[in-house]
C-alpha cells in the first residue's frame, strides 16, 4: 500500500489560499495572494529538495493541477523542482476535466476524490505526494487517507482566506518526526499519523 504525504504552506492562522502570487486564487474576494515567496530561502529550498529526492508520484486536485501546469508544465529551466515535477507521474482527481493532456505524465482519475484516491493508494506503486490542493487534502484527511504532513508554517496571519482545516475534521493524532526552522522564521514540521 502506498502512503500519502501532504505538503502545505500555511500561515499561523491556518490560511493556505493564494500562496504564490496575487492572482493565484481570489475566490471569496481573497486579496492577500502572494504572501509566501518573501519567506523563501536556502533552508526551505534544501528541505523541499530533500522531499523531492525520493521517488514518488504526485496527486492533485483539478484547480492546483491546472495552476501547476501553467507554471511548471512547459518550463525547461533546469530547476530541480521543474525536472522532478515534469518527470513524476501526476494523478489528477477531477469530475470536470475532459483530459489531462496539457502536462506530460498526467493521469486523470474521474469520480469521487475519496474513492479514487483510496483505490489508488491500495494499488502497488510509488508513494504519493500532494502539494497544495487544499480541498483534496481536507477530503482525504476526513477519510483517514493522509499518512504524513509536511507543514511549512509561515510567521504571519492574514485574517481571511481558505484554511487548511475548514469544516469537520476527525480527531486524528500525529507525531512530530522532525522539524527545521528557516532563517526567515518558517517552521517546517514533519508529522506522521499515529
TrEMBL record:
Q: Which Pfam families match?
A: RibD_C
* Signal peptide range in chain numbering: none
- List, for all copies, the residue spans of the domain called Bacterial bifunctional deaminase-reductase C-terminal: 3-187
* Protein's UniProt name: Dihydrofolate reductase family protein
Q: Which organism is it from?
A: Streptomyces oryzae
Amino acid at each position: 500500500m502506498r502512503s500519502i504525504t501532504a505538503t502545505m504552506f500555511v500561515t499561523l492562522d491556518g490560511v493556505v489560499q493564494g500562496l504564490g502570487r496575487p492572482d493565484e486564487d481570489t475566490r471569496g474576494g481573497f486579496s492577500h495572494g502572494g504572501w509566501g515567496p518573501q519567506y523563501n530561502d536556502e533552508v526551505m529550498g534544501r528541505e523541499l529538495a530533500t522531499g523531492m529526492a525520493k521517488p514518488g508520484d504526485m496527486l492533485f486536485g483539478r484547480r492546483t493541477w491546472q495552476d501547476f501546469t501553467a507554471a511548471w508544465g512547459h518550463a525547461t529551466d533546469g530547476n530541480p523542482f521543474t525536472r522532478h515535477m515534469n518527470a513524476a507521474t501526476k494523478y489528477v482527481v477531477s469530475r470536470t476535466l475532459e483530459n489531462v493532456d496539457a502536462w506530460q505524465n498526467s493521469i486523470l482519475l474521474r469520480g469521487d476524490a475519496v474513492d479514487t484516491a483510496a483505490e489508488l493508494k491500495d494499488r502497488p506503486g510509488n508513494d504519493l505526494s500532494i502539494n497544495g490542493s487544499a480541498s483534496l487534502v481536507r477530503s482525504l484527511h476526513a477519510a483517514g487517507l493522509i499518512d504524513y504532513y509536511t507543514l511549512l508554517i509561515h510567521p504571519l496571519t492574514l485574517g481571511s482566506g481558505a484554511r487548511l482545516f475548514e469544516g469537520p475534521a476527525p480527531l486524528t493524532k500525529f507525531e512530530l518526526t522532525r522539524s527545521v526552522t528557516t532563517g526567515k522564521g518558517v517552521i517546517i514540521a514533519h508529522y506522521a499519523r499515529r
